[in-house]
Design a protein that fits this description.
Shape: globular
Helix content: 10-25%
CATH class of the largest domain: Alpha Beta
Strand order of the largest sheet: 7-6-9-10
CATH architecture of the largest domain: 3-Layer(aba) Sandwich
CATH superfamily of the largest domain: Uracil-DNA glycosylase-like domain
Largest sheet: 4 strands, parallel
Length: 236
């Protein structure tokens, strides 16, 4: 929590988050055996219990990573839904993965579209780590859910969605110049929390299931730059 920028205090002060509860061990019965008695002597064969703790992504120290950015510095909000729910992928930033991890399919399609829209910039994307976008281009890579149980997409949405809705509303009220890039129907549903509708760019989700139905050749990244009034360096 100590890395959260002070500009987010008004949002966080309305919530209490105990991250230790996210993966709190739970008891689950493995088997149940009856008590056996012989000559008034009983052998107890109690129910065997195993302790199960959910595996949570991203690591706890990265759950609030996106809030290291001063709200006044945000230029673009790129809204995702869930952190990646497979091992070693989620790093606290939407669509991003750590260095050395294969680029996920949706991010590959984002890179393809950037190369389509800006061929003269000669972008080369060799990593799925978007930390340069975050730190240098001030792209706020927010997921609607800040954590997820391994292999269970959407499993923590009920924990985080009210909070992240308030985050979107807070950004809109306190940084009216930033642009919101909403890709897919889930992200588009968040437009109701954004006051300045002129600062929203809508697009199809870059998932392989939908990218060929309106994402490719959409010009959304050019539109983002147009609304910002300046160029973004999309290299990673």
């Amino acid at each position: 929590m100590e890395k959260i920028h002070e500009s987010w205090i008004p949002v966080f002060e309305d919530y209490e988050f105990d991250l230790d509860l996210l993966d709190k061990p739970k008891q689950k019965s493995k088997s149940k055996k009856n008590k056996k008695c012989e000559n008034e002597k009983c052998e107890n064969e109690d129910a065997q219990m195993e302790i199960i703790a959910d595996i949570i992504y991203p690591p706890k120290d990265l759950i609030f990573k996106v809030f290291e950015m001063d709200i006044k510095d945000i230029k673009v909000v790129l809204l995702g839904q869930d952190p990646y729910h497979n091992p070693k992928q989620a790093n606290g930033l939407s669509f991003s993965v750590p260095e050395g991890v294969p680029v996920p399919p949706s991010l590959k399609n984002i890179y393809k579209e950037l190369m389509i829209e800006f061929p003269s910039r000669n972008y080369v994307f060799n990593t799925g780590n978007l930390e340069r976008w975050f730190h240098e281009e001030k792209i706020f890579l927010l997921n609607a859910s800040l954590s997820v149980i391994q292999n269970k997409p959407g499993s923590h949405m009920d924990i985080w969605e009210q909070f992240t809705n308030d985050v979107i509303r807070f950004i809109s009220h306190n940084n009216p110049d930033c642009v919101f890039l909403l890709l897919g129907n889930f992200a588009k549903s968040k437009q109701k929390f954004i006051t300045n509708k002129d600062k929203i760019v809508y697009g199809t989700h870059p998932s392989p299931l939908s990218a060929h139905n309106g994402f490719f050749n959409s010009g959304i990244f050019m539109e983002v730059e147009k609304k910002l009034g300046h160029q973004i360096n999309w290299s990673v």
